[in-house]
From TrEMBL:
ATP binds at residue 56. CDD domains: STKc_PknB_like. Keywords: ATP-binding, Kinase, Nucleotide-binding, Transferase. The keyword Nucleotide-binding applies. Signal peptide: none annotated. GO terms for molecular function: ATP binding; protein serine/threonine kinase activity. It comes from Kosmotoga pacifica. Residues 26-289 form the Protein kinase domain. Coiled coil: none annotated. Transmembrane segments: none annotated. This is Protein kinase domain-containing protein. It holds the Pfam family Pkinase. It comes from the Bacteria. InterPro entries: Kinase-like_dom_sf, Prot_kinase_dom, Protein_kinase_ATP_BS, Ser/Thr_kinase_AS.
Amino acid sequence: MDITTSNGGISIRLPLKSGIFLNGRYRVVASLGSGGFGITYLALDTARNDRKVAIKEFFPKNCTREGKEIVFTEEPEKTFQRIAEFIEEAKMITTVEDKRIVKVLDYFLENNTAYYVMEYVEGKTLKEHIKLHGPPGTREAIELIKEIALGLKAIHDRGILHGDLKPSNIMINSEGVKIMDFGAASFTNTIYTMTHGKIISWSYSSPERFHNQTIITLQSDIYSLGGILFFIVSGEDPIPAPEREKGIALPIPPVSYKIRRIIKKAMALEPFQRYPTVNHFLKALKSFF
């Protein structure tokens, strides 16, 4: 259960109960967690021998549930637009074919809202992994960020920006890494506006994402990629961009000069000072091999 307050009132987001079926085939097992725009469930696909799947339900904060249906508090036109954007997010991800990207298997409308179904990935998030095991050695760190960068390249190759790349949105297990959660995804060179409570990750979002009416480019994701490398080698979140814009320096971790140089360039405050593309970032990593 997720409780939020709005305009002096209390909004309770109740997850669907275990055993409920969605789209006539997906049986909800449990809630995996919630974010600003929805709840994610573990479910079984009864049409595929009870295969485990993850289902994301569009259920923004300040909305409630009556029975199974979501009750929105805004104008119907705005609700329709936001649901359409959620489905568009799912369609966007289906165009990306790469082993490092969580696959979207299905999407549908039900319960006055929208859902999309993803492959269920066992393992821990990169954030959990580093917090549990500590920062890895240089070679392992470079291999790890290389795999994440290759996944990001596959996204960019389809003309898509992830928009919210951070350690908690990357799964890691014995098979490698999986980039997930495309809730802030958009097409490249989109004019970014601070509407609908757009997603901002305090330590990993680029400076331009904190400003309204900004054209978001590939360099926004590259800033986040640099932040992830910072986290991998230090075990700490980098200083948020707004604080850096006030003059607080980014304390580069005490690692090799090459890694420090990559972090510094990827996380430059000005987009034009960062790597132009993920390919350029990958080229910088090649010097380690």
